[in-house]
């Protein structure tokens, strides 16, 4: 007998298989964390990297040692050279669900739940539909993990510029000492290969889920510039939250920074909201996706 298919043609049997795998991983993770992690938390309890578990610290050490200019150029080139998959946005959300983000000290929920929490928090606040959709998709770039990434260090975590000195306001700044660019005669200087006022668009941010998804969404959706900025810079905490690298901004970036800052609380603090029901919310979001992704099947 044929397996039962849902609206997007996915076999429901495969889905429940997936959900089982995620639940096993979630249970494993819970043992590493403090209790009540997903209940209402004080805002000051988020992003406490000094208190984070070794998994998070090891992740950032590896990332900060390996994100170099040379790697960045190679990753951007690989990205442009092929299409990795073709699937709808919803299929992408389901595929991503098996990934557990090693860099995140604040949630043990699955990726689909995090995406729905962000979107729902934006929707609850009466924000525009394009922003709700941005919340829904903002981490889909983590799909890179399944398409030839070298690990999680080139997919998740906060981002920072390469090609100029690493700012002290990046988390775990000392771990950059092991990065080959750290003492480079140009990349190791304050402005490096950039000039003040050059615009964030001309800065090479460390390669990962933000930059990858930004290019996909820019080419294949009708989402506005603010949405693209929210996606591209949402992990750039040194800039949007710590105020580093401001000297590279141009006039256009001021409005983009404002958009990114407006988005950030929905990404970060929604992690303590209740677990959303994927099944109940799916019809609403399928319609929303169709509104801004006219061709439905996306080239990833
Ligand atoms: O651990 C998190 C996670 O990987 C997020 O998706 C990313 O946007 C954040 O910047 C990072 O701190
Ligand atoms: Fe993210
Ligand atoms: Fe996120």
TrEMBL record:
<feature type="binding site">
    <location>
        <position position="139"/>
    </location>
    <ligand>
        <name>Fe cation</name>
    </ligand>
</feature>
<comment type="pathway">
    <text>Polyol metabolism; myo-inositol degradation into D-glucuronate; D-glucuronate from myo-inositol: step 1/1.</text>
</comment>
<protein>
    <recommendedName>
        <fullName>Inositol oxygenase</fullName>
        <ecNumber>1.13.99.1</ecNumber>
    </recommendedName>
</protein>
<feature type="binding site">
    <location>
        <position position="114"/>
    </location>
    <ligand>
        <name>Fe cation</name>
    </ligand>
</feature>
<dbReference type="GO" id="GO:0005737">
    <property type="term" value="C:cytoplasm"/>
</dbReference>
<feature type="binding site">
    <location>
        <begin position="101"/>
        <end position="103"/>
    </location>
    <ligand>
        <name>substrate</name>
    </ligand>
</feature>
<dbReference type="GO" id="GO:0050113">
    <property type="term" value="F:inositol oxygenase activity"/>
</dbReference>
<feature type="binding site">
    <location>
        <position position="234"/>
    </location>
    <ligand>
        <name>Fe cation</name>
    </ligand>
</feature>
<dbReference type="GO" id="GO:0005506">
    <property type="term" value="F:iron ion binding"/>
</dbReference>
<dbReference type="InterPro" id="IPR007828">
    <property type="entry name" value="Inositol_oxygenase"/>
</dbReference>
<feature type="binding site">
    <location>
        <position position="138"/>
    </location>
    <ligand>
        <name>Fe cation</name>
    </ligand>
</feature>
<dbReference type="GO" id="GO:0019310">
    <property type="term" value="P:inositol catabolic process"/>
</dbReference>
<feature type="binding site">
    <location>
        <begin position="157"/>
        <end position="158"/>
    </location>
    <ligand>
        <name>substrate</name>
    </ligand>
</feature>
<keyword id="KW-0408">Iron</keyword>
<feature type="binding site">
    <location>
        <position position="209"/>
    </location>
    <ligand>
        <name>Fe cation</name>
    </ligand>
</feature>
<dbReference type="Pfam" id="PF05153">
    <property type="entry name" value="MIOX"/>
</dbReference>
<feature type="binding site">
    <location>
        <position position="142"/>
    </location>
    <ligand>
        <name>substrate</name>
    </ligand>
</feature>
<keyword id="KW-0479">Metal-binding</keyword>
<keyword id="KW-0963">Cytoplasm</keyword>
<comment type="similarity">
    <text>Belongs to the myo-inositol oxygenase family.</text>
</comment>
<feature type="binding site">
    <location>
        <begin position="234"/>
        <end position="235"/>
    </location>
    <ligand>
        <name>substrate</name>
    </ligand>
</feature>
<keyword id="KW-0560">Oxidoreductase</keyword>
<feature type="binding site">
    <location>
        <position position="267"/>
    </location>
    <ligand>
        <name>Fe cation</name>
    </ligand>
</feature>
<feature type="binding site">
    <location>
        <position position="47"/>
    </location>
    <ligand>
        <name>substrate</name>
    </ligand>
</feature>
């Amino acid at each position: 007998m044929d397996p039962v298919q849902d609206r997007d043609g996915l076999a429901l049997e495969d889905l429940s298989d997936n959900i089982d795998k995620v639940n096993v991983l979630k249970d494993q993770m819970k043992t590493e964390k403090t209790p009540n992690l997903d209940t209402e938390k004080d805002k000051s309890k988020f992003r406490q990297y000094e208190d984070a578990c070794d998994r998070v610290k090891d992740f950032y050490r590896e990332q900060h040692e390996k994100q170099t200019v040379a790697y960045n150029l190679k990753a951007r080139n690989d990205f442009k050279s092929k299409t990795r998959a073709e699937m709808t946005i919803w299929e992408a959300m389901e595929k991503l669900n098996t990934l557990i983000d090693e860099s995140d000290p604040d949630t043990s929920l699955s990726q689909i739940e995090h995406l729905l929490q962000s979107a729902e928090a934006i929707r609850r606040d009466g924000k525009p539909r394009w922003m709700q959709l941005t919340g829904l998709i903002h981490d889909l770039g983590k799909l890179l993990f399944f398409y030839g990434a070298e690990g999680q260090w080139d997919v998740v975590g906060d981002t920072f510029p390469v090609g100029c000195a690493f700012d002290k306001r990046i988390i775990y700044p000392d771990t950059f000492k092991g990065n080959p660019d750290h003492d480079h005669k140009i990349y190791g200087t304050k402005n490096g290969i950039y000039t003040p006022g050059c615009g964030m668009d001309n800065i090479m941010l460390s390669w990962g889920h933000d930059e990858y998804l930004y290019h996909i969404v820019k080419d294949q959706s009708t989402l506005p510039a603010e949405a693209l900025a929210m996606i591209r810079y949402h992990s750039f905490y040194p800039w949007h939250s710590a105020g580093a690298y401001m000297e590279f901004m141009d006039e256009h970036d001021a409005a983009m920074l404002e958009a990114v800052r407006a988005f950030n609380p929905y990404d970060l603090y929604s992690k303590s909201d209740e677990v959303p029901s994927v099944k109940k919310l799916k019809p609403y979001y399928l319609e929303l996706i169709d509104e801004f992704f006219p061709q439905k099947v996306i080239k990833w």
